[in-house]
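Continuing from the previous page of notes. For each protein in this section, the sequence appears first, followed by its structure tokens. Read the first protein now.
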Amino acid sequence: EEALVRELREELGIDVETACLAPIAFASQNSSKNSGGFHLLMPLFACRKWKGVARAIEADEIAWVRPNEFTKFEMPPADRPLASQLRDML
């Protein structure tokens, strides 16, 4: 969770306290043998309280979108199940 707080600050410029993070889902995927054959486990957290205004620091742009639009965006294959789970929860 501390790594997530750090990444949110570095990539979006927002400050979040670990107490404001709630795990809500996860995705699990084995990588191909061509990329070293590792296992990837990605938790998805909800955060409803932060300080600052989110802005694109390490990306070209960011946007607030409706849940039914999540899967329209390019994302790594491992992220797709999380986008679908989040859409279904909202």
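Done with the first. The second protein uses the same format. Note its length before scrolling.
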Amino acid sequence: METFVRYTKFDGSLHWNHPATYLGADQHGTWLGVPAGATLLRDTTPKTLSYKFVMLFPRDAWWTACFNAQPTRTELYCDITTVPVITPEEVTMVDLDLDVTRWRDGTVNLLDEDEFIEHQVKYDYPPQVVKSAQDSADWLLRAVRERQSPFDGIHEEWLRLVP
């Protein structure tokens, strides 16, 4: 079953958006797959990927995760977002700029702190949004570094389902 993934910015403008295949759900959330060769749109600019990946959308957390197959340099890319709204047809959330990555060598980084600060002013993020985003980034940094579930390899079983 195809599910459309739609990230927006805080002002409602389109960010990343693309179709994905529903793979299933577990205690961590909803899993979607995207095959190698898929074209994603950033706003309206297409980007064709040479690798497959699975996405995890938790039911009640301020983040999403992309677990990438080889040959990417990033094994894991987490976006700090509003809590995803998940329906069978679509998953939507607001991208809140901060990202947590885990590189293939195990290095974990927090990215785009400058963009987060800039957008707090530009989009007038409410204080609770700022706090939730910062708390989520702090939690993700720890969980990803320590390889806590679902960042412990559980994604591999889902990745095998993507052609």
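What the second structure shows: Residues 127-145 form the longest helix (19 residues). DSSP finds three helices and eleven strands in the chain. We return to this in next week's lecture.
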